[in-house]
Input
Amino acid sequence: MKRQIKDYLRFGWQMINGERLAHERSLANIRSADLAPYVNGSQSLCVLDLANGQLCPQLFLLLADGHRVYGIDKVNQIKASWEYRAYQVARRLYSRQILSLSTKRDNTLVCGDVAQLPFPENCFDLVTSIAAFEHFLEIPLVVKEIHRVTRPGGLIWVWIHPFTCLSGGHNVSLTEVPLRSLPFGIAPWDHLRERILPFHVPLNEWRINQYLNAFSSHFELLKHYCAMREGAAFLTQQIERELSEYTRDELTCGGFVILARKHST
Output
């Protein structure tokens, strides 16, 4: 509990000093670079931010770039709790750091299920998601729904935090990206080994090849690669032998990107 409180305090400071925003901007820059060969940079796109999260940083960044953006997440629901109010304050901080006073801020946050999207067919030019797919428990349904709401020729760009990486259990520090330290007494890749630390969020435990198979069944895969590495310093020969069912790439990939396109016909 003390470790979690310390982590949240550090996260709050990172919000204030701009470190978290810088990280979110770096992710947005990677997305822009990947999309550049396939979109007109001056064109305003209709975008779905899938599982936008409590703070909605990517939604605000996409709005600032002039796109029409919808965000869908079950957290997009007003609640009477101190935690919700705290997130509202943090969200306003993000919004003010990113958006100018002239930027249009339509209320396009939708509370809904990503496996049952409340949108018509063929309506989005781009569907994007960052660090959310690892939490979805019905990925085939989610991918099928994304296919339904994406227009022919539309693009999908997702950043996945693989379960197999050092921080894949989502139960270590949330303030270090990539992860550089572990709690005292906890072995590296504990979530793949003894599982001493409990999981605090839903995790599907999918591997990278499973994601690729799910997307390739509905979309044309344009690009996929590991965009962030972590944990190489912790990966001893003993651990590699113990976790021999996983490749070194799987164990050290902290951020995996999939760029796909819906077939035109």
